[in-house]
Amino acid sequence: MMQGGKRWAARLAWPLLGMAITLALWALAARHISDVEAIRSAFAPQAGLKALAQLLGSGELWPHIRMSLERIAIALALALAIGVPLGLCLGLSPLFARISGPTFQFLRMVSPLSWMPLAVMALGVGEAPVIFLLGFATVWPIMLNTAAGVAALDPAWMRLAHSLSATRWETIARVVLPGCISHILTGFRLAVGIGWIVLVPAEMLGVSSGMGYFVLDTRDRLAYDELMAGIVVIGCLGFVLDWLARAISSRWMQRGQRG
């Protein structure tokens, strides 16, 4: 028991030290951000953390958190629905890869935020352009990792499926998809990080809820302590989402190894 407690203490010591250094740097930056004492006080860690406790306690922040999580979930579902089939086509069809590869690479290198004006003109103001921007940002890592997974498959598996007279759909369902699931999960984890980064500026696009809207609103109201609280929440949520994506990937890998 004592040894287990020591191991947990050792594991917690370094993250706690990192958090302490981060708070110290935050306090130092706040002291030099402006010559106005009121602004320096508003940006200080104690002001931001106090505002965070008040916002969570009053329930004001929870609807924004819920809407941001809903949007990222919808966008990731769309990215999986589009990215996995496209990745399979890229990996299984050299002709499709030659025809579409340059176009996909070109589109992938265009910042999703560059599409903001066009998204608003085509889809109007509201949820649709936000979901479009998030989906556009998250589809590429899923698609490209799926294609890489197909390329990494052992050719003997494909020959075995062919020798057993498996149809193309049976080969995809029972050989290709199970064989490249680890690559798909890696792409999904990358997509979570990219989508969460794009979410905040995308939510400044004519919506009235979400963490991006909350940050923009606090800036307009000059509520800098609440702005810092919002930044802390965005970072914490992103950390949790990445942890969940890693946990899902690790769990699946362990299941595959046991199987």
From TrEMBL:
Q: Which residues are listed as membrane-spanning? A: 12-29, 72-97, 106-125, 131-153, 190-215, 227-245
Instruction: Return one Gene Ontology term, BP aspect.
Output: alkanesulfonate transmembrane transport
Q: Which coarse location class applies to the principal site listed for this UniProt protein? A: membrane
Tell me the domain of life.
Answer: Bacteria
**Where does it reside?**
Cell membrane
User: What is one GO cellular-component annotation here?
Assistant: plasma membrane
UniProt xrefs under Pfam families: BPD_transp_1
UniProt KW keywords: Cell membrane, Membrane, Transmembrane, Transmembrane helix, Transport
Q: How does it sit in the membrane?
A: Multi-pass membrane protein
Please list the residue ranges annotated as the ABC transmembrane type-1 domain: 65-245
Q: SUPFAM superfamilies from the entry?
A: MetI-like (SSF161098)
Q: Which family does it belong to?
A: Belongs to the binding-protein-dependent transport system permease family.
Q: What is this protein called?
A: ABC transporter permease
Please give the organism: Comamonas koreensis
